[in-house]
Amino acid sequence: MQNTSDILERIAQHAPDLTALADRVWDTPETLYAEYASCDAHVETLRAKGFRVTEALAGIPTAVMGEAGSGQIAKLANQIMVACNIASVAQGLLFAKLGGAEPAQIPPALAGGHADSRVLQEHGLRMIARDFRPGAPIRNFVKDLDTVLATAGEIGLPQLPVVQQVRDIFKALADQGLERFDHSAFLLHLEQLNAPARLGDGPDTAPD
């Protein structure tokens, strides 16, 4: 399959949620046609990902079907928020470092507040550790944000200036040969603009 690598990258990107779903299922053993907890877990996950869900398929209470439906729009909205959040986290952490704060203390200090996010708690720490091995490669974000901008034009949103700028930065990084780096490598663009500013003291960990 020509798109095998993309499929594997998408699976890796959603691995935490898929693993959590699998753990919920295995932690609650159920008998045939009585998998109610498992069914509820699958429905919850599918809906959270933007799928249209049909329950009690073929008259079977625990049979469900997920269809893309509005899932594509939900996915693109997710990518907008994640990409722009990555940009904000990178800027905030570099700002904190140059302002004399300890970057590693920022995620726990902001935990539970309005600035908190999974991006801050996971990818912010990866920025500080300078670990750019891919969970979500830059090339995927370029592709997704191109789709976002094209779709936005089709639905009457011809101007998404922040998305456009973030997309252009990811594209510039990809053109530098960093297309396989995790999207937390947005940080590298900021450091290029503000040299010799640098977040973290260790060497960069690049994709294998």
Can you give a write-up of this model?
With 208 residues, this protein is an all-alpha fold. The chain is 59% helix and 3% strand. It has nine helices and two strands. Strands 1-2 form a two-stranded antiparallel ribbon. Helix 4 crosses helix 6. It is globular and about 65 Å long. The two termini are 22 Å apart. The mean pLDDT is 90.
Structural class: mainly alpha
The global form is: globular
Biggest beta sheet summary? 2 strands, antiparallel
Number of helices: 9
Distance between the termini: 22 Å
Helical proportion, percent range: 55-70%
- Strand line-up of the largest beta sheet: 1-2
Helix-strand sequence: HHHEEHHHHHH
Q: Could you tell me the strand content as a percent range? A: under 5%
Radius of gyration: 20 Å
Residue ranges: pLDDT <50 for 5 or more in a row?
none
Average pLDDT reading: 90
**What is the count of β-strands?**
2
Features:
single chain; 208 residues; 9 helices; 2 strands
List the helices and strands and how they pair.
Blueprint: H1 4-13, H2 15-26, H3 36-48, E1 52-54, E2 65-67, H4 71-98, H5 106-110, H6 118-129, H7 138-154, H8 161-178, H9 186-193
Antiparallel strand pairs: 1-2
